[in-house]
C-alpha cells in the first residue's frame, strides 16, 4: 500500500507514492537522492537529519514522508543560492565549525532556524538554540563562532 | 612564497561537507543493491537451542537468511581475530556469527538480506531464536570473584591476561620508608564512542572476477582488508578493495575489525550482488568497542620534601566478551607505560588483569589507555598536594622531570625524547589567574552557598606508536610505520597517496601544507588521496594521534627523495654537478650562480619526456616512502579546570577551562585547536556525564542517546587554549600529535576541581561521572 504525496523540496515540486511508514529522511535520502540529511540515531536526539519543513527545523527521522504532503522542505542541498554559499555555510567553513561533517547539515539548518527567530543571538542563546543537535568532533566551541559569523554577515 | 606551515588555511574538505555533497557509506547506492539486517542476542549470555528462519524466508522480497551454519558451510575461516598478543593471553574464538553460545547483548546470531531496508528489518523480527538464558556477569570486579559465571570455558576465572611492568620490590621499599603516602580506589567509567555516523558497510562481490569492493566506515582500510581476508572471509587479499569514503567520526571505534562488516561481505558473496548494512544507533552502541572500564587501586609514596619515591597501581581492566582488535594493548602497553606522567619517579609497579565480561568488547577509544593512566597519576598528585601541604601546583613542579634530564628514561619502558614541563604550568596559571581564584575560593568557603574548585592535570601522552620492531616485540601483530607516495606530475602539480586515513581530521588540508612547504609550491597544487586500498600502496591508518608525526613524516621523506632526484635531472640540464644544486622556493639552482636555475615544472616535464636525460636515471618524478619512527612522540601540557559546585543540589557548573598544550610544531593552528576542543568535550563528558551502564543481567541500560549523555552544546563552555612549543627531536617535522590530548588531560582536571571545591567536606574522591546525585551523596554522607 502506498500513499501519494505532493510537496516542494528545495523549491522544486515533487510527486511520489510512498509507503505510509516511510520516514521523511529515507524519502529524501533514498528516493530523492538528497543524502545531505544524515541519520545518527533513532530517538530524535542527535539532530543530524534536521531539515526545514515550512520554515521550522524538523528532525526528518521522526516525521513520515506522508506527513510532509503539501509542505515545503529545505535540505542542506537547497541552502546555497545561485552558487553562493549561505552565510552559515561560509561561517562553518571560515571558523572551522566542522570536522567529520556528519552533523553539519543538521547543525546548519538548526542554526538557520535559530537566526530566523533571533537574528543576533548571544553566545548563550546560540548554545540554547542548538541543543537539539549533537556534534562529537568539535566540542561546539567553533560552532558558536560560526553562527556568530553568519549572524553578523546576515545583519 | 608565503609561509604555509603553521598557517590556519581553511579546510579543503569543507565545501563538500557544508553543501551535503560529501558521501558517507550509507549515502552510496549500487545497482542491484540489497539490504542486510542483523539479528542480535537480547541476552548477555545464553545457549542457542535452535534458530527458525522459515517465517523470515517466507516474506516476499527476502533474499537470504544466514546463520552460523552458513558460515561453516561457506568453508571460510569465519572468525574475528585479535591483533595484539600478550604472554599467556587467552584468545578464545570469536565467531563471526555465534554458533551455540551468545556472550553479550548484541552478539550476532543471524543476518537477513532483503530487497529493501524496511523489509530486511521486518524479516529480522521474524527470525525465531530459541535461547536458554545463562547467568551473566557484566561488572569487571564481579567477573573476577569466585564462582562468577564464565564468559569462556578456556579462560578460567575470566582472566584474559595477567600483566605487569616495573619493579615491585623497589616500590615496596619506597613505601616502607615513605614520609607521606596517598591512595585511591577508583573506577574509570566505561564509555561508548558515539561517532555520530554509525558503522556501515556496502559490500559488492562480483563472481565473474572474484573481486569484492567494500565501502565501509574505516579508520584503517588496509588493516581492515588484512583482517577481513585473512581471518574472516578467507579471500585473497588482492581480490578485495576496501574504500573508506567520508567517515563520520571514529575516535577509535572504526579502527577495529568487527563481525558485522565480515557478515555483510559474506552476504554479498553468497548472493553475488551488493549488500548494504547500516547500524542503528542502538546497534552501534551495543557492538562498537567501548572504552575504559577499569577498577583500580593506586598508591603514591613521597618523601618529607614532597618528592615522589614510589607508585603502585593494580588494575582490573574489562575486555568484554571477546578480544577486540588491539584490546590487549590498551590497558597494558598504552597504560602501564604512561605511569610516570611528567614526573621523575624512581620506582613504579603496575599490575593489570584483563577480564572477560558479558558485555561489548573494550578497545581503543580516544586516548586509549593514556587517559586512564593520566587519571590515576593526576588524581594521586592532587591528593599528594594535600597530604604534603604543598598544594597542587608546587607538588607537581617539585616532581617534574627537569628540562635538562631529557632524554629521560622512565621506570616503565618509555624514554621521553624531549620535554619542558614548567612553562606550560606557568602559562596555565597566568591564563587562569590562579592567585585571584584562590582568594575567591577562600572567601566563598566562609559563606556557605556555592563553592569554587580549581583542578589541575599535567599530562604526558605517547603518540605515534613506534618503532615497528619494538611494538612487535611487545606483541603487536602489525607494523607501526606509515607510507606516502608523492607524485609530481609533468605540470608540477602533485598528488600524494597516504596510508593515513582521515575521518574528520583534515589531512587533505594539512598534508597539502606539508608538501607545499617542502616543495615551495601552492597548497592548491597538491591533491591528497587516502582511504582506498586500490589507490594507496599500504597504510596503517589514522589512530593514536599518529597521522602528522608518522604519516606526515613519510610524506616529507618522499619529498626529500624527489628533490634529490630532481637535482640530478636539473644538474644534467644545467650542465652542473648535482652536488652544487640547491632547491629553494620551487626552483633548482646552482649554488652561487642565481641565473642558472630551473623551476620544478621544467624539471618535472623533462623527467617525463626523458629526451635530454641522465643515462643512469629512470624517468618519472615520484617517490614512495615507508617511514618507521625512531620513538613515540611525547606531547604534554597542563590543563586547569574551574568549577562551581552547588552543595545543596550536587550540581556542577563549568566556569573556566584553560589548556596549555605542547604538541611540537604546528602545521595548521586552526585544526590543532579544533582537535583539542573535541578531545576536551569527550574528556569533560567522561568526567561529568557519560557512562555505559550494564545492569546485573548484562543489559546495556544506557544504550541510546536518551540515556547516555553525550555532551550537548549548552553543557559546555568556550575553551581557553595556548601552546608552548618543544619540537619532537626525531621526526623531520618536529610534530608530536594532538588528536587525543584533550581527552587524556581533562577528566583528571575536572574531577580534581570538584574534589578541590568539596575539600571543606573532607571529600577526597568521587567516581566519574560526577552526577549531581553522587556529589550530593558525598556531601551528605
Output mean pLDDT of chain B.
Answer: 97
Widest sheet of chain B: strand order?
3-5-1-12-9-10-11
Looking at CATH, the homologous superfamily of the largest domain in chain A is: Beta-grasp domain
CATH class of the largest domain in chain A: Alpha Beta
CATH architecture of the largest domain in chain B: 2-Layer Sandwich
Cα-atom Rg of chain B, whole angstroms? 27 Å
Q: In terms of structural class, how would the helical and strand content of chain B be classed?
A: alpha+beta
- Kindly estimate the percentage of residues of chain B that lie in beta strands according to DSSP: 15-25%
For the biggest sheet of chain A, the summary is:
5 strands, mixed
Average pLDDT metric of chain A: 97
| Strand count of chain B | 28
Total domains of chain A = 2
Say which CATH homologous superfamily of the largest domain in chain B is assigned: Aldehyde oxidase/xanthine dehydrogenase, molybdopterin binding domain
Indicate the radius of gyration of chain A in whole angstroms: 15 Å
How many E strands of chain A?
A: 5
Brief summary:
The complex is a heterodimer of chains A (155) and B (781). Chain A is of the alpha+beta class and 155 residues long. In chain A, 33% of the residues lie in helices and 16% in strands.
Topology:
The complex is a heterodimer of chains A (155) and B (781).
Chain A: E1 3-9, E2 12-18, H1 24-31, E3 50-53, E4 56-59, E5 72-74, H2 87-94, H3 104-117, H4 123-129, H5 141-154
Parallel strand pairs in A: 1-5
Antiparallel strand pairs in A: 1-2, 3-4, 3-5
Helix pairs in contact in A: 2-5
Chain B: H1 14-18, E1 34-40, E2 46-52, H2 54-57, E3 62-67, H3 68-73, E4 101-102, E5 108-114, H4 117-125, E6 128-133, E7 159-166, H5 168-176, E8 180-188, E9 200-206, E10 211-216, H6 221-233, E11 240-243, H7 259-271, E12 275-278, H8 281-287, E13 294-302, E14 308-320, E15 348-356, H9 370-388, H10 391-399, E16 408-409, E17 415-416, H11 421-432, H12 434-445, E18 450-460, H13 468-473, E19 482-488, E20 494-498, H14 507-519, E21 526-529, H15 547-574, E22 581-584, E23 587-590, E24 593-599, H16 600-609, E25 622-627, E26 636-646, E27 652-662, H17 669-688, E28 720-723, H18 741-757, H19 772-779
Parallel strand pairs in B: 1-12, 10-11, 14-15, 20-21, 27-28
Antiparallel strand pairs in B: 1-5, 2-4, 2-6, 3-5, 7-15, 8-13, 9-10, 9-12, 13-14, 16-17, 18-26, 19-20, 19-25, 22-23, 23-24, 26-27
Helix pairs in contact in B: 9-10, 9-18, 14-15, 15-16, 17-18
Amino acid at each position: 500500500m502506498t500513499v501519494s504525496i505532493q510537496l516542494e523540496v528545495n523549491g522544486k515540486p515533487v510527486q511520489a507514492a510512498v509507503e505510509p511508514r516511510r520516514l521523511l529522511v529515507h524519502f529524501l535520502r533514498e528516493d530523492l537522492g538528497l543524502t545531505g540529511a544524515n541519520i545518527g540515531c533513532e530517538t530524535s536526539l542527535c539532530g543530524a537529519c534536521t531539515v526545514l519543513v515550512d520554515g521550522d527545523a524538523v528532525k526528518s527521522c521522526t516525521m513520515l514522508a506522508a506527513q510532509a504532503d503539501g509542505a515545503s522542505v529545505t535540505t542542506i542541498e537547497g541552502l546555497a543560492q545561485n552558487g553562493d554559499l549561505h552565510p552559515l555555510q561560509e561561517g562553518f567553513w571560515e571558523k572551522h565549525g566542522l570536522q567529520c561533517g556528519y552533523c553539519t547539515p543538521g547543525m546548519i539548518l538548526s542554526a538557520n532556524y535559530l537566526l530566523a527567530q533571533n537574528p543576533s543571538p548571544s553566545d548563550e542563546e546560540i548554545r540554547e538554540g542548538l541543543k537539539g543537535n549533537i556534534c562529537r568532533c568539535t566540542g561546539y566551541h567553533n560552532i558558536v563562532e560560526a553562527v556568530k559569523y553568519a549572524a553578523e554577515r546576515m545583519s | 612564497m608565503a609561509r604555509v606551515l603553521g598557517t590556519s588555511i581553511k579546510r579543503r574538505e569543507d565545501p563538500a561537507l557544508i553543501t551535503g555533497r560529501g558521501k558517507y557509506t550509507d549515502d552510496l547506492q549500487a545497482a542491484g543493491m540489497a539490504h542486510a539486517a542483523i539479528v542480535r542476542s537480547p541476552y548477555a549470555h545464553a545457549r542457542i537451542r535452535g534458530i527458525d528462519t522459515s517465517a523470515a524466508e517466507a516474506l516476499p522480497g527476502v533474499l537470504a537468511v544466514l546463520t552460523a551454519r552458513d558460515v561453516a558451510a561457506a568453508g571460510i575461516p569465519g572468525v574475528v581475530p585479535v591483533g595484539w598478543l600478550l604472554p599467556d593471553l587467552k584468545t578464545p574464538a570469536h565467531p563471526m556469527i555465534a554458533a551455540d553460545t551468545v556472550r553479550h547483548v548484541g552478539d550476532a546470531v543471524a543476518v537477513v538480506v532483503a530487497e529493501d531496508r524496511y523489509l530486511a528489518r521486518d524479516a529480522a523480527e521474524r527470525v525465531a531464536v530459541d535461547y536458554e538464558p545463562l547467568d551473566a556477569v557484566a561488572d569487571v570486579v564481579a567477573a573476577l570473584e569466585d564462582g562468577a559465571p564464565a564468559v569462556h570455558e578456556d579462560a578460567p576465572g575470566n582472566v584474559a591476561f595477567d600483566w605487569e611492568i616495573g619493579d615491585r620490590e623497589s616500590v615496596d621499599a619506597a613505601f616502607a620508608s615513605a614520609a607521606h603516602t596517598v591512595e585511591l580506589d577508583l573506577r574509570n567509567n566505561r564509555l561508548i564512542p558515539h561517532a555520530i555516523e554509525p558503522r556501515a558497510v556496502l559490500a559488492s562481490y562480483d563472481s565473474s572476477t572474484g573481486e569484492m569492493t567494500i565501502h565501509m566506515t574505516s579508520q584503517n582500510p588496509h588493516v581492515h582488508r588484512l583482517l577481513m581476508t585473512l581471518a574472516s572471509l578467507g579471500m585473497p587479499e588482492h581480490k578485495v578493495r576496501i574504500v573508506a569514503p567520508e567517515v563520520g567520526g571514529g575516535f577509535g571505534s572504526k579502527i577495529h575489525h568487527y563481525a558485522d562488516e565480515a557478515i555483510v561481505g559474506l552476504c554479498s558473496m553468497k548472493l553475488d550482488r551488493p549488500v548494504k548494512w547500516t547500524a542503528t544507533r542502538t546497534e552501534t552502541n551495543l557492538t562498537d568497542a567501548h572504552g575504559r572500564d577499569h577498577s583500580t587501586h593506586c598508591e603514591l609514596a613521597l618523601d618529607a620534601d614532597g618528592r615522589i619515591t614510589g607508585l603502585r597501581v593494580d588494575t582490573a581492566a574489562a575486555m568484554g566478551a571477546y578480544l577486540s582488535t588491539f584490546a590487549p594493548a590498551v590497558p597494558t602497553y598504552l597504560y602501564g607505560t604512561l605511569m610516570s606522567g611528567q614526573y621523575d619517579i624512581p620506582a613504579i609497579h603496575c599490575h593489570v588483569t584483563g577480564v572477560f565480561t558479558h558485555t561489548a568488547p573494550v578497545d581503543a577509544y580516544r586516548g586509549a589507555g593514556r587517559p586512564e593512566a593520566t587519571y590515576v597519576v593526576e588524581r594521586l598528585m592532587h591528593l599528594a598536594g594535600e597530604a604534603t601541604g604543598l598544594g597542587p601546583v608546587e607538588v607537581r613542579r617539585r616532581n617534574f622531570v627537569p628540562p635538562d634530564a631529557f632524554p629521560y628514561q622512565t621506570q616503565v619502558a618509555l624514554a621521553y625524547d624531549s620535554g619542558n614541563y614548567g612553562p606550560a604550568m606557568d602559562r596555565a596559571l597566568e591564563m587562569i589567574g590562579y592567585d585571584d581564584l584562590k582568594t575567591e575560593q577562600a572567601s566563598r568557603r566562609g559563606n556557605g552557598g556555592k563553592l569554587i574548585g580549581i583542578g589541575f592535570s599535567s599530562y604526558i601522552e605517547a603518540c605515534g606508536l613506534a618503532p615497528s620492531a619494538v611494538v612487535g616485540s611487545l606483541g603487536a601483530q602489525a607494523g607501526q610505520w606509515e607510507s606516502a607516495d608523492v607524485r609530481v606530475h609533468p605540470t608540477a602539480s602533485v598528488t600524494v597517496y597516504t596510508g593515513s586515513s582521515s575521518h574528520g581530521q583534515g589531512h587533505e588540508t594539512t598534508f597539502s601544507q606539508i608538501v607545499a612547504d617542502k616543495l615551495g609550491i601552492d597548497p592548491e597544487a597538491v591533491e591528497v588521496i587516502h582511504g582506498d586500498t586500490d589507490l594507496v600502496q599500504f597504510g596503517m591508518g589514522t589512530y593514536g594521534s599518529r597521522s602528522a608525526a608518522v604519516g606526515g613524516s613519510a610524506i616529507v621523506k618522499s619529498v626529500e627523495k624527489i628533490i634529490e632526484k630532481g637535482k640530478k635531472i636539473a644538474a644534467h640540464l644545467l650542465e652542473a654537478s648535482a652536488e652544487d644544486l640547491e632547491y629553494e622556493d620551487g626552483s633548482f639552482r646552482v649554488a652561487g650562480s642565481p641565473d642558472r636555475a630551473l623551476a620544478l615544472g621544467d624539471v618535472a616535464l623533462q623527467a617525463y619526456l626523458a629526451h635530454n636525460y641522465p643515462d643512469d636515471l629512470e624517468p618519472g618524478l615520484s617517490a614512495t616512502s615507508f617511514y618507521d619512527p625512531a620513538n613515540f612522540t611525547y606531547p604534554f601540557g597542563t590543563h586547569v579546570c574551574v568549577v562551581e559546585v552547588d552543595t545543596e543540589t550536587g550540581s556542577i557548573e563549568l566556569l573556566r577551562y584553560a589548556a596549555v598544550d605542547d604538541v611540537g610544531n604546528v602545521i595548521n593552528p586552526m585544526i590543532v585547536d579544533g582537535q583539542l576542543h573535541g578531545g576536551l568535550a569527550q574528556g569533560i563528558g567522561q568526567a561529568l556525564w557519560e557512562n555505559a551502564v550494564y545492569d546485573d543481567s548484562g543489559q546495556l541500560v544506557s544504550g541510546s542517546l536518551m540515556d547516555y549523555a553525550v555532551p550537548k552544546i549548552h553543557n559546555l563552555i568556550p575553551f581557553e587554549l595556548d601552546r608552548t612549543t618543544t619540537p619532537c627531536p626525531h621526526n623531520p617535522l618536529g610534530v608530536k600529535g594532538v588528536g587525543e590530548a584533550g581527552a587524556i588531560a581533562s577528566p583528571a582536571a575536572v574531577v580534581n576541581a570538584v574534589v578541590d571545591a568539596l575539600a571543606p567536606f573532607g571529600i577526597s574522591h568521587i567516581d566519574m561521572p560526577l552526577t549531581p546525585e553522587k556529589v550530593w551523596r558525598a556531601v551528605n554522607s
